[in-house]
């Protein structure tokens, strides 16, 4: 029987490995990092992501995340707040991703850490010291693997991302208790929320031209952010990383096109990239990982899997990408805030429409 080889041990790869192992398939997972590490992410774990993790037998509550059930939107001095139609969790990727890999191992997956795939050639994963063949599941997230570029035409790829942690001051802990605060500013947006251990996650995206106009350094950007009413209180908080994590050229709005002649199974951000403000990228990664495992087990083809995954996530990705484009212009931004402030329920509805649907989650997490 063909062995399944999963490339990348983030949430998509971890979910696929855990599920395949539970089905008795003993997959091999290759992860280039050797130890748990911080990842650039807002760390807003949606209810759908939580449902996927529990269906994998993974108890996320034991990691001690922060409960989030409200969203607050700031644009200059305007703001709108809504109760989320679900409860989410603020949890670091450092804890979550590593714990999921350990969970997959306990279920019977073989996990090789510190193993980077250099390229994919002739249907094999090429390593520093040889190559491995099998059914390849590509789950390398934002990172491309040589030989497998994504066609990112038409996506929003001119944003730079930053992420850091702060120690919560009493004022910030009170104001953010149970809430994720999203500040939309000229050229970008920032999310601020609690995660485990009394820390705050600040994660933001900014247009690269705007970043350059502000001085082109983290220090100049942070000074500008502190002028935003929604972020001003960070001036009194201690920053916990020596320098922020950064990322650029994430292709927001990317959706892989299924091809009958392509044997590679693409999961997570390799299959679809939803704008970060939705906080559902992790759920989509887990969803794809789980679905891939079930379809491998059922003997499906890679193309059938890609078509099914696309069916589950394309609408959400397109809507969120349109909203992100709207928020990128000054008029669109203020129209959005005015509209959301005037229509109670609109913010919650948008939060619902940009997520994997409950039906798709239920289908994917139903016991085998
Ligand atoms: C700025 C920003 C903020 C975000 N905020 C949120 C949020 O708040 N909530 C949310 O749900 N989603 C959020 N997302 C989206 C979310 O982070 C991604 O959708 C999700 O991490 C995708 O999971 P993945 O498993 O596909 O990839 P990843 O989590 O990126 O994992 C990929 C793994 O592959 C490994 N790897 C890479 N290359 C190789 C190689 N060549 N060989 C072996 N291993 C390799 C990496 O080390 C990594 O562990 C955000 C994204 C960004 C950019």
Automatic annotation (TrEMBL):
GO terms for molecular function: FAD binding. Gene3D superfamilies: FAD/NAD(P)-binding domain. Coiled coil: none annotated. Residues 2-127 form the FAD-binding domain. InterPro entries: FAD-bd, FAD/NAD-bd_sf, Geranylgeranyl_reductase. Pfam families: FAD_binding_3. It comes from the Bacteria. PANTHER family: CONDITIONED MEDIUM FACTOR RECEPTOR 1, GERANYLGERANYL DIPHOSPHATE REDUCTASE. This is Electron transfer flavoprotein. It comes from Sandarakinorhabdus fusca.
């Amino acid at each position: 029987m063909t062995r399944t080889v999963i490339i990348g041990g983030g949430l998509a790869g971890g979910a696929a490995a855990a599920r395949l192992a539970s089905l008795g398939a003993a997959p091999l997972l290759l992860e280039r990092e050797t130890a748990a590490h911080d990842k650039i992410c807002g760390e807003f774990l949606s209810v759908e992501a939580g449902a996927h993790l529990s269906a994998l037998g993974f108890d996320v509550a034991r990691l001690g995340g922060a409960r989030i059930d409200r969203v607050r939107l700031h644009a200059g001095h305007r703001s709108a707040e809504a109760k989320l139609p679900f409860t989410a969790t603020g949890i670091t990727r450092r804890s979550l991703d590593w714990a999921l890999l350990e969970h997959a191992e306990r279920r019977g997956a073989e996990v090789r850490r510190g193993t980077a795939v250099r390229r994919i050639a002739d249907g094999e994963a090429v390593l520093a010291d040889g190559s491995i063949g099998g059914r390849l599941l590509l789950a390398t997230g934002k990172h491309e693997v040589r030989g497998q570029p994504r066609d990112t035409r038409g996506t929003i790829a001119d944003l730079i991302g930053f992420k850091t942690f702060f120690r919560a001051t009493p004022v910030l802990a009170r104001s953010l208790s149970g809430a994720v605060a999203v500040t939309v500013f000229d050229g970008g947006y920032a999310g601020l929320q609690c995660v485990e251990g009394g820390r705050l996650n600040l994660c933001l995206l900014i247009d690269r031209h705007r970043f350059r106009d502000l001085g082109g350094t983290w220090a100049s950007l942070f000074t500008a952010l502190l002028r935003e009413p929604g972020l001003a209180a960070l001036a009194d908080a201690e920053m916990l990383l020596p320098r922020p994590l950064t990322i650029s050229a994430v292709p927001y709005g990317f959706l892989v096109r299924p091809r009958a002649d392509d044997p590679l199974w693409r999961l997570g951000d390799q299959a679809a990239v939803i704008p970060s403000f939705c906080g559902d990228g992790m759920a989509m990664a887990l969803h794809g990982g789980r679905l891939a495992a079930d379809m491998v087990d059922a003997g499906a083809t890679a193309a059938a899997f890609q078509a099914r995954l696309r069916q589950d996530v394309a609408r959400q990705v397109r809507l969120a990408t349109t909203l992100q484009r709207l928020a990128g212009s000054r008029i669109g931004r203020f129209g959005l805030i005015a509209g959301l402030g005037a229509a109670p329920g609109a913010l919650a509805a948008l939060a619902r429409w940009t997520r994997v649907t409950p039906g798709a989650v239920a289908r994917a997490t139903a016991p085998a």
